[in-house]
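Late entry, written up from scratch paper. The run itself happened at the end of the previous shift, but nothing got recorded in the book at the time, so transcribing now.
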Amino acid sequence: MTQAARERWQVRTPLWTVSATAWTWCVLEILNGSYQDSHDNETASIMLWDWVVMIAAMMGPLLRQPISHVYARTFSHRRFHAVSLFICGYTCVWILIGFGLNLTLPTNVYLLIVSLVMWQFSPMKQLCLNWRRAHPEIGAFGWVAYRDTLVFGIRHGLWCLGSCWLLMSLAMLFAGWLKIGTMVAISLLMMAEQIESPSPPKWAIRAPTRWVYMLLMWGRIFLQKL
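Output as recorded:
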């Protein structure tokens, strides 16, 4: 294994482990029946914990590129602290702002879906998607290096929140296996959006065409090998 491949796995493995653990937690709560009971008697603390688990499950795979950016531009003895600061900034945005926004959303599923559709097609959604791909320069030495990674985490969290928070909030309205199915569908959509090319912010119907094309190509290669 090359050094570059080893570094990629050093980034992917923790993210996938955290994500898999969070997904497992969601499934186990449904299997033992505690999830439905807690959903029927929701408190702010239960909703906050549910929100944190959702972030860990759904956002982990989406952080590979920005964390790889931090990892590649930081000296080896600073990498753990740099990545930790990035994750801290990113997570604080999702917990503090995302959970606060989630509390103010309407509980009516149809009203939320209408809001979600309008946001998905809006210029602000595309602007958030464009800026979510931005990877700024990171200082190499001293407190500047730590400041830059923390600020990068906060900024990336804000743009990611702007592009995904209504999708995440939709899953909060469901319980049980319906919630898991919604989370899976939203996760796939967010991953598909991440690989789309940037485009000018405007009202438009956005579809994950690049991901569909990739799936068709993989299917063609698979059939050729049969």
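The mean pLDDT is 86.
(Scratch paper discarded after transcription.)
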